[in-house]
User: What shape does this take?
Amino acid sequence: MTLKLLIIVGALLLLAPQAVAQELSFSQVERGRYLATASNCVGCHTDFENGGERYAGGRPLHTPFGVIHSPNITFDDETGLGLWTRDDFYRALDEGISRDGHNLYPAMPYPNFTLMPREDVDSIYDYLRSLEPVHAETPDNELPFPFNVREAVIGWNLLYFEQRPFVPSSEHSAEWNRGRYLVDGPAHCGACHTGKNFAGADVEEEYLRGGVLEGWLAPNIRGGENGGISHWSEEQIVEYLATGRTEHAVAMQRMGEVVVLSTQNMETSDLEAIALYLKSLEDEPREPVDMPDEAVMAAGAAIYFDNCAACHDSDGSGVPGIFTPLAGSNKLNAEDPTTVLRIILEGALAVPTEAHPGPLGMPAFDWKLTDMQIADLVTYMRSSWGNSASAVSESDVADLREQLEEYR
Assistant: This one.
């Protein structure tokens, strides 16, 4: 072997470990990027409305206890995570405790993230560390006493938080377990779709049966018998999460944001796992409700035909994938009519996705319809075309109209 060849071989041997390390590092960062996407970290930690930088925090999160601003999670030394170690980051996601030892408010879904194994959390850390740091101070939270006392979270954790790893079920397939892990862990679907108690903690009996967050009802997403999406197939659930549209619904507002920032970027196999898991969740049969007064139904029908039938059709069938079908809608059939009322009052926008770049919108009717007219309209829709849900009162609409002023 010539001297020149020996030098080349020696150089390759010296560079090989570095090349492997770079490949592993890239793989780790890419894994973290995917998990951060599945967790929709950017959704909460970016103040899009005010032009904030991605992951630089500052988004106001409206809770029943006041406004909490999300922190900067870029690796800026002064205003972000620049001084955080992997152990610090893991403790925050696993225990809900910050680097400086203070308790995080459970608006940060560490009760879900505690299910994530250390290797998944470390990969998210490495991904965030790979991003350009942004110097961005987090605005002060707007929490009245006693909710501004962080030590109170200690009591909340004792009552409602269980630090635990994800344990697969031996009675189900690997795909089912993957779906449950994603739903309960990184994707933290229950943070919106599970009912909460007076302290803002998940109610076990209300798991994925619907919950109210920031003035929206996230509907029942149990897909088995009697569930809110029992009439959806697994393929339709995947289509909805991947594209924001299916024949049953169009993703708007908060869920539209989740699709754009998170689920449309996930692997099809993971969406299929989520769909499989949701379809396995059955629900209790709904209690029958009394039919509304005939005069209310007649008034509601007239308002519907004047304002809604042109898009949603006279029989509530809509135009699948464009104008949401109202017959069988889990939002209309929900016990809580908040989302339907809010869409009518404020209008709604289906944000563009990669599969459907053209936006869809519904106009607001708060300027046109009175509280009584909206109540009659929604009562009519909740009792027509096979739907069965309780009547809505004028005061329900008036209360929500007043509440929405707080978000403007």
User: Anything to note?
Assistant: The mean pLDDT is 90. The chain has three domains: 41-160, 174-279, 294-407. The longest strand covers residues 60-63.
